[in-house]
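Methods — Computational structure assignment.
A single polypeptide chain was analysed. Its primary sequence is given first, followed by the predicted tertiary structure written as structure tokens.
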Amino acid sequence: MKDFDVDDTGVLMITWDNRTTSVIESGWWQPQMDGPEAGTKLYGTKGFACLFPTHVKLSVNERAGIFTPEFPEREEHCDQHMYTLQMKEYIRAIEERDTPFPGAEEGLVNMRILECAYRSSETGEAVSLQ
């Protein structure tokens, strides 16, 4: 087996000011990925929500339940419509000399988060984003 000097998988844990924690995983192959391109799950003290397949489990006042909305069968991959809408927004922003969303400001925040993640990986310590 060859050893390649690349990052093929990353796990990022973010603790927000309100003590909420986010875990973001990215890689070439994610066996637990449950959506066409990604998976999204939200855990809380009173429930759980999952995007693919979409359902919510709640426990409120000693009552528990599962809510599962009905959607059309999903494709194995994201369909072209999503990418077409992204390109339309990009072209609209150019034509109207407007800032696309997401724009440079959001990209800068993402890059700062990634820089902190790399620094944390190198030092083995949590890094604060100021």
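Note: The first helix runs from residue 80 to 95.
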